[in-house]
Amino acid sequence: MTATTKMNGIAAFNKALHIAMEKDPKVLVLGEDVADREGGGVVGFTKGLSTTFGDDRVKSTPIAEQSIIGAAIGAAIGGYKPVAEIMLMNFTTVAMDMIHNHAAKLRFMSGGQTSVPMVITTLTGAGAQTAGQHADHLEAWFAHAAGIKVVAPATPADYIGLTLSAIDDPDPVMIVMSMMTLFGPMEVPDDQGPIPLGKANVLAEGSDVTIIAYSSTVLTAFQAMPKLAEAGISAELIDLRTVSPWDRETVLESVRKTGRAVIIHEAVKEHGVGAEIAAVINEELFGELKAPVRRLGAPSCPVPFAKVLETAFLVSVDELVETVTATVK
Amino acid sequence: MSAGGNRMTPNPEQQVDIYRRMVRIERNDDAIRQTIKRGRLQMPYYSARGQEVIPSAISAQLNPDDTICTIYRGIHDMVAKDMPLRPLWAEIAGRVDGTCKGKGGPMHLTHPESGVMVTTGIVGSSMPIANGLGWAMKLDGSKRVSIAYFGDGASNIGAFHEALNLASLWKLPVIFVCQNNRFAEHTRYENGTSVDQISKRAAGYGMPGYTVDGNDPSEMYAHAYEAIERARSGEGPTLLECMTFRFLGHVFGDDDKYMTKEEKAEAMEKDPLPAFRARLIADGHATEEQLAEIEKKITDEVADARDWALEREFPSTDELKRDVFEAEIA
Ligand SMILES: Cc1ncc(C[n+]2csc(CCOP(=O)(O)OP(=O)(O)O)c2C)c(N)n1
């Protein structure tokens, strides 16, 4: 048995950066407040890095999101592997040109002559009453753009494994970090290595229905599992881990077995990632399905402030249990 | 502000080299327009006729591994940077032998061997990326420089302001070269820009800024020299606002009604090409025959590139799946 250490997502991500920077001197970190002089990040993601690896490799930036992503793109074309932090996912909107028109497209537009091996990390998620402009899950925007991969870890071990792979990837990768996945400590193998991008994780095996989740909703699904078991439902739980490209094989194999699927994400349901997954399941397994594929996500409204509204905005454990139960019936 | 200290003037050989680059731009531009007119080339074309001096005087002082990030109106910048014309033409014709296998086209040319790293169709976007290249050069411990070319309209976009601030803060070896042709698409300079000189904006970011006669090769050379020296010696970025005029519409086919006849005629009168040619001869830096020979060689080079490119194959549709990521997509 390998030794483990209890840590939360923040410490895990921090450990991944330490490992990557130690291993490869081309790995750089930049973003608002990331250096130790500025406290190593607002939640401490980058603590200790500038002290260990120097201010040249770990650079605090002005509040200038286009400039942050632009500098990362240029450094990536110039032979480095920058990890650029956009403090919160809503602020990626300010840098959309750099992310979508440049980072994601330069390899293709140059006919493969240049590549942009950079990582964008960004924090988000409802639950802390930050309301309209600080909590959106926008992963569908980036999943819809060709040329950038989107990763959404749910557990501390995955934070290490997926981050290591993202940094090593020859193309731009965005890591979406949900607030809800960051603070709960869990055991992490001391020798946790890279986890391949694009590979889902089957967290529980079952025979009646497949629940497909990622990021914060993996935790929602975890809580629903005992209740489903109590109701006599055998659910298979898949953590997608990578939203784009997503692991069709694992998902289709599971749904082929169970004949039923429920997809859950924190983002707004309409035009969300769940729609794509549901469509592919329908295309591939139409004759084998025992029930319509269902999706759960937020209503089409901005993230609200009042606790009662914010709670209603998020898919609850009970809602998931109800939907899964209705699907199996 | 004008550059102080000892002004560097190009020696006769360098002057002829600048002229060579200018002719290469002009002949190439002319050939592209003719070829579009004859229906043998289908592309959006943003001519830079009239702006030849700016990248020529700069490129005459750059090495192949110094980089440029340029814009849709940037073919002159690439030609000045010694990009080979055959793959350039194949790219604008959308052929598989183009620099980018026909996947970038005239607004997105890339050619790292010549130092052409990014060509963008998004106004203002060359600057933040040029910063990143400059950062990489600095980390490498090299003395290379990163040039960002852009227009006067681009200086009103947020990215310009963010990029100047960051470059100054990080002392990056970047030269911001604004080619002020006095129009942003159809908008006159004064209707879109709040200062009478863009160079004044440099002060707001703690870097030197100069307004330069972008049609005067010696003045352009001297200011570029100073900016390049500053960048190479680790002193940081410079903003050069290079005054010029584009002789043609914003895009090929545009009827340029937004320019007055008088200002256009005046600009044409000051066409930097014949003026510089006459000066080279008058100053005894080159003979008529020498220049004619240079021009002939370039005319042939351009014709060869065009004819070669138009004979190339189009890319296969398999290319849609390639270069999205390093590993082919399913
Ligand atoms: C962000 C963005 N907005 C608008 C456009 C459309 N557009 C293309 S060129 C142009 C004018 C730019 O003028 P300037 O920066 O002065 O450069 P010039 O074309 O004169 O070289 C505009 C508005 C664009 N390409 N990108």
TrEMBL record, chain A:
Organism superkingdom: Bacteria
Entry keyword set: Oxidoreductase, Thiamine pyrophosphate
Cofactor section: thiamine diphosphate
Protein name stated in the entry: Alpha-ketoacid dehydrogenase subunit beta
Keyword Oxidoreductase: yes
Pfam families for the chain: Transket_pyr (PF02779), Transketolase_C (PF02780)
Transmembrane region(s): none
An annotated Gene Ontology molecular function: oxidoreductase activity
Cited InterPro entries: THDP-binding (IPR029061), Transketo_C/PFOR_II (IPR009014), Transketolase-like_Pyr-bd (IPR005475), Transketolase_C (IPR033248)
Gene3D superfamilies reported for this sequence: 3.40.50.920, 3.40.50.970
Sequence ranges assigned to domain Transketolase-like pyrimidine-binding in this UniProt record: 7-185
TrEMBL record, chain B:
GO BP terms, alphabetized: pyruvate decarboxylation to acetyl-CoA
Catalysed conversion reaction: N(6)-[(R)-lipoyl]-L-lysyl-[protein] + pyruvate + H(+) = N(6)-[(R)-S(8)-acetyldihydrolipoyl]-L-lysyl-[protein] + CO2
GO molecular function terms listed in the Swiss-Prot or TrEMBL record: pyruvate dehydrogenase (acetyl-transferring) activity
Dehydrogenase E1 component domain location: 20-311
Keyword Oxidoreductase applies: yes
Pfam families the record matches: E1_dh
Required cofactor names: thiamine diphosphate
Keywords, comma-separated and alphabetical: Oxidoreductase, Thiamine pyrophosphate
Keyword Oxidoreductase: yes
PANTHER family: PYRUVATE DEHYDROGENASE E1 COMPONENT SUBUNIT ALPHA, PYRUVATE DEHYDROGENASE E1 COMPONENT, ALPHA SUBUNIT BACTERIAL AND ORGANELLAR
Protein's job: The pyruvate dehydrogenase complex catalyzes the overall conversion of pyruvate to acetyl-CoA and CO(2). It contains multiple copies of three enzymatic components: pyruvate dehydrogenase (E1), dihydrolipoamide acetyltransferase (E2) and lipoamide dehydrogenase (E3).
Protein name: Thiamine pyrophosphate-dependent dehydrogenase E1 component subunit alpha
Species annotation: Stakelama tenebrarum
